[in-house]
What does this fold into?
Amino acid sequence: MRILVCVKQVPDSSELRLDPNTNTVVRSGAPGVVNPFDAYALEAAARIKDGGECHITLLSMGPPQAAGALKACLGVGGDSAWLLCANELRGSDTMATAYALAQAIRHIQTEEGGFDAIFCGRQSVDGETAQVGPMLAELLGLPQVTNAVDITAGPQGFTVRRSWESGWETLRLPPPCLIAVDKPAYEPRLPSIKSKMTANRTQINTLDASQLRLAPDRVGLAGSPTYTGSTFPAKGRGGCTMVENAAALLDALRERAAL
Amino acid sequence: MNRDIFCLMELSSGGITKGSLELLRPGRDLAAEYGARLTALILGADAEKAAIQAAEHGADRVIAVEHPLLEEYSTENFTSALCGAITQYAPLALLIPASPNGKDLAPRAAARLGLGLTADCTGVEADRESGLIGWITPAYGGSLMAVNLCRTVPQMGTVRPGMFKLPTRQEGKRAELIRVQPPLSSPGNSPAVLSRTAQSVQTVDLTGADVIVTAGRGVGGPEGVKLAERLAQTLGAALGATRAVTDMGWLGHDRLVGQTGQAVAPRLYIALGVSGASQHLVGIGNAETVVAVNRDPSAPIFAAADLGIVGDLFQVVPELIREIEQRKK
It folds into this structure.
């Protein structure tokens, strides 16, 4: 069994603070962590590995620092790691990102062999689009299951429990396929000292734009079908009036006829 | 007549979903702006009744793509049917509800046709500067709104449920109906559904609540939740929760307010120990007055609130309950 897990390094949201002057989130200096949903995807793969022979390949696209996220993942189940890092990719939207990841996976398959499944987190906590998984599945021509909360592997393929509109459904699909993972009922495992040391010794393979023969008109800001035209401040509430205590709050609510 | 504005209508047992019918409101505005026709696109086994529903909610035209394989949602059949309709009718824009299935389908179809797609829009309107459709999403923790533009046609986006009021139903209004039968066949590698279970728990509808008290991570545990509940009872309010609180199991998922929960529009929203993550804030954008109580003065919730108290919930909330009860007398 061979599973590739897509991993993104995201800013640690618990460290994010609001700049009171500009009302924007202070991102600089926020330490990077593994996107939680990707950690769940990796844990789902690691649990399959617990039950039988399985090689877990990690793939991340991002700046050189994203190697940190890959190292962390190597300590909790990953066997090999690839980092796609290229200036050409800056500003890529979800479609351009999915295209670059698809090209990277095709390349890794020629080096390592094919995969039975691609696991990814349902969404990143910074982008929050949940679009890259299905787009990647389409570009690779794989069937997909999104919102997976439990995955088991058996002789007939993967059995996936998925949350949908008003409940749960259990699906079975044959390899190769792509599964986008939502928060499961379990927490991802922690590394041991031994697994951390092994992770530190594991070489991270790097990939660049030319190796993957990325079409310039399909990546980066210019190659993305969507872009941000402008921004405007969120619908102003006219600022927050701070009050001292409960009585003052009730007075203020009366005044606004909110009570 | 210009090209069409398409709104994808999702079906459930009770007809077209609310999150889909809502799209006909911004769809109508866009159609007026671009001199376009508003078309409701329905994918299903039998769209007869849904077609009437869409017409009565304002669609100028209904395209019903019908096939027995569209009875239940499946990624491949719906992608194939949707892409077929896009290619055949070449609309100017396509609005898709950001429901779980809508979000499974839209990126798949966008990738198949090489089209741009913006996720989870909270607004859709003509962008005067570019002449394109502005797909509006919260950015940078919700303090800014981004106007996303799409270079490809149809311009596409998924739109969060609860962002628009349902268009007024005009009983008896009819629309041109086109029925299409796509060639579909279930591919062998499609996921097979082994079982489906509907959630048996009674779901809480917060969308119509007049006053909501929401417990966030800062309530600290079941005891804090009880305190929030007491305040809610005192105010005759509904009780809501943030993701942290439902994840901890302190309150059920059916009380979740925000991106993956319910979008609410109460007269008064009281956030207790809520930090103010963008996923939460997007669900309370339509609240009239927002009150935040939090120990941390730099918590982002204060930027989204009208009134705030920096302090310990276990002091402030009992005081508030006492004060309300006193004033009632």
